[in-house]
Amino acid sequence: MMNTDRTTRQKVEAGLPRRRRKEFTFKVLGIFATAVGILFLGMFFASLIGEGASAFRQTYLQLDIELSEEILAPDGELDLAYADFDGLVRTALRRELPDVSGRQERRELYRIVSIGASYQVRDLVAGNPDLVGTTQTLWVPASSTVDMLIKGNIDANVDEALRPISNKQIAWVETLREAGRLDTRFNTALFTNGDSREPELAGIKGAVMGSLYMLMVTMVLSFPIGVAAAIYLEEFAPRNRWSDLIEVNINNLAAVPSIVFGLLGLAVFINWAALPRSAPLVGGLVLTLLTLPVIIIASRAAIKAVPPSIREAALGLGASQTQVVFHHVLPLAMPGMLTGAIIGMSRALGESAPLLMIGMVAFIVDVPGSFTDPATALPVQIFLWADSPERAFAERTSAAIIVLLGFLLVMNLAAVILRKRLERKW
Amino acid sequence: MVISTGMSAVTEIPERKAELTGETVGNIRSDHPFMVAEDVNVYYGDNHAIQHVSLEIGKKEVIALIGPSGCGKSTFLRCLNRMNDTIETARVTGNITLDGKDIYRKEQDPVALRARVGMVFQKPNPFPKSIYDNVAYGPRIHGLAADRAELDNIVHSSLERAGLINEVKDRLDEPGTSLSGGQQQRLCIARTIAVNPEVILMDEPCSALDPIATARIEDLMDELCEDYAIVIVTHSMQQAARVSKRVAYFHLGLLVEVDETDKIFTNPQHKLTEDYITGRIG
Predict the structure, then answer these.
(1) Which DSSP letter does residue A368 get?
(2) CB of B197 closer than 8 Å to CB of B115
(3) Cα B65 to Cα A99: distance, rounded to the nearest angstrom
(4) Which of A178, A378, B137, B217 has the fewest CB atoms within 10 Å, counting from its CB?
(5) What's the whole-number mean pLDDT along residues A340-344?
(6) Number of DSSP helices (H) and strands (E) in chain A, helices first
(7) Strand, helix or coil at A165?
(8) Which residues have CB under 8 Å from B31's CB, separation 6+?
């Protein structure tokens, strides 16, 4: 016998330094990998917040607007569609800066206030027609170039021809600021408005509502269908070539590029079933197809993880297969299933490619009010804004990303909390 | 090897059967047969796990199935309440009757069968529910209790017969898994008898328990066999000797020998039985 006690121990000891070295190297590599990950994540968040934080504040002008009767109701009757609210705002602006003269200069002056100002006045009058004839002091949005100037995104030192704001405009803004008529405030428009061509009026409400409607459709369809399919495949389906084929296909579907689902949705739901274009209903259906494989796979894994002893105990007592599933397997598998569902939902929320195919990429100003209204979704809105040339859309893109990440964070948190609450520790 | 042959030559009784022929020695008959297995074969795919087993299980008796690991005793046990149905590759041939009726006949609902033939498993497997709900589960699914009071009654009497009531009567709402291993196994027995079965199958019910808990379960079996036929698979020869009236020795899928417990342990007819009970195969 070669392996006496002594030589065995010597052999073990001879190999020890090598093993320790390996362990050390592996640990260092692991720490390095984690550090790189955290570094990139930190950079990502820093740049995102650095870029997007300013979008949550917006420059406003304070104007005393005289809601004069002769302009609003020249024939003695107020017609909201034709009344010259724009004129009111311009008059107020001129009154604020009386030394502006000449058509050219005036036109320049009008450009420092957003077109949203006249909408605001119109909404005010529409809400309360009795105000006609009074003078109202309002905070109205400044134009996005003024906003960019105030936020320091436009360098006043570059040549006048190279920047979107003229020297005169800068001087007026300065005057207004000194008079306390210009201020930055919380940007409510970002959360209450739909999309707009004017950055200072553009908001994410339309996209958020579109995403919510879509997720509702997705949730209502994909969770029950996914869980039912998982239960059938796991508990009732005979194991044969067909079930193997189905299993392989479900696994493959989970890996299919999402834009392919968009094409499928376009062909089936819009072209064949004639559902409306750009509708959250169709988006939700497409996202259902997209999340189903994820939910089925997660649910099957959760069902598989239920200890067989529980099944046997119930079967041994004379429970039928259905009773075993609904009394024992399902309650125990539910946390895993819900986690899978929420992860699937998160994926659906962040998906943009398939929505491009079904027309949810359109420019839609109105906030959708139902499942069939034209809508867009948060990630698509981000894509649209990122594509816009105005400087002010850059910060809004980042702000929308922050909001989207916030939603994802909330959903994942919900998944963790649900799992912890439903998990039976006994 | 040479030495041991010499030794056994001295102790061996010449008429003892030594070869594995597939014929069962001893007496497979019971005085009051209740479950009768005739020429039972079980196949797992191509594997012939149980071969031509015939055995009678009597009323109010404990019969122990012993044998080395993989000999098919658990497989045979699971034929008796058709738990093998859940294994897709398993195929059972032959004839098993319960009270004269074939349990593998077409009209036999396995669910109804398992209500008559209860089972206790190797590892205590209470449901992740309260103690009360564990015991009440069987009566609930079979609709045995008309109202809550009757269900309470069933739960209490079952726990009482399982010798657990004094330990749990104040905490019926606590999870079944909060009990100790021995208590959990008695809870599982209570759960089984709550359905009022006629036969109880026990698959190594004490192998995960300490000696004190084992002793309690064995006492319980003594009491339960007043009312039920009990079939127990065990690896412990002492346990078989203590609790059973008859013993069946399985080897490589064959039923080698069946007889009264005393006879098996004092004067086995087959060489393999003797080797096993004296610890030469294990």
Answers:
(1) P
(2) yes
(3) 110
(4) A178
(5) 90
(6) 18, 3
(7) coil
(8) B58
| Overall average pLDDT of the B188-208 stretch | 91
Quote the tokens at residue A106: 């005036």
**pTM exceeds 0.90 for this model:** no
The count of residues in chain A is 426
Does residue A239 sit at the B interface (CB-CB below 8 Å)? Answer: yes
Eight-class DSSP state of A333: H
Place of tokens 């206030």: A113
Mean pLDDT of A85-100: 88
Contacts of B128 in chain A (CB under 8 A): 310, 332, 424, 426
- Report chain A residues whose CB lies below 8 A from the CB of B108: none
Backbone angles phi, psi at B249, to 5 degrees: -105, 120
Q: Does A308 touch chain B (CB under 8 A)?
A: no
* Residue B82, Ramachandran bin (φ over 0: left; ψ between -120 and 50: alpha; else beta): left
Would you say residue B9 has pLDDT above 70? Answer: no
- Condensed to tens digits (0 to 9), the pLDDT of residues A271-286 reads 999 999 899 999 999 9
Gap between the Cα atoms of A1 and B241, Å rounded: 44
Percent of chain B scoring above 70 in pLDDT: 93
What's the confidence (pLDDT) of residue B1? 37
Tokens of residue A64, six digits: 């005393």
What is the rounded CA–CA span in Å between residue A19 and residue A26? 11
B2-125+196-277 architecture in CATH?
3-Layer(aba) Sandwich (3.40)
Nearest to B253 by CA among B99, B106, B53, B78: B53
Rounded-to-10 torsion of CA A382, A386, A391, A395: 40
For chain B, give the longest Cα–Cα distance: 71
Buried b (16+ CB within 10 A) or exposed e, B138-158: bbbbbebbeeeeebeebbbbb
Interface test with A, best of B74, B78, B83, B86 (most A CBs within 10 A): B86
Is the CB of B207 inside 8 Å of chain A's CB atoms?
Answer: no
| B115 interaction partners in chain A (CB closer than 8 Å) | 317-318
Cα B214 from Cα B185, distance rounded (Å): 10
Give A164-182 pLDDT, tens digit per residue.
Answer: 888 889 999 999 999 889 9
3-class secondary structure, A322: helix
Question: Hey, what amino acid is at A406?
Answer: G
For B73-127, how does the pLDDT look when each residue is reduced to its tens digit (9 = 90+)?
899 999 999 988 888 888 899 999 998 889 998 888 888 899 999 999 988 999 9
The confidence score (pLDDT) of residue A47 equals: 93
Quick one: pLDDT at residue B134?
Answer: 94
Question: CA B267 to CA A425: how far, in whole Å?
Answer: 51
- Please state the domain extents for chain A: 54-187, 205-422
Contacts of A318 in chain B (CB under 8 A): 111-115, 138, 141-142, 195
- How far apart (Å, rounded) are the C-alpha atoms in residues A123 and A116? 10
- Tell me the two tokens of residue A350: 């962040």
- Asked whether the predicted pLDDT for residue A316 surpasses 70, the reply is yes
Q: Is the CB of residue B130 less than 8 Å from the CB of residue B65?
A: no
User: In the numeric block, which tokens belong to residue A371?
Assistant: 């499942």
3-state class of A292 per DSSP? Answer: helix
In this prediction, residue A4 carries a pLDDT of 59
Tokens standing for A83?
């009344």
β-pairing, B33-44 with B47-58?
antiparallel
Which CATH entry fits the domain spanning A205-422: 3.40.640.10, 3.30.460.10, 1.10.3720.10, 3.40.50.300?
1.10.3720.10
Q: Are A142 and A200 in contact (CB under 8 A)?
A: yes
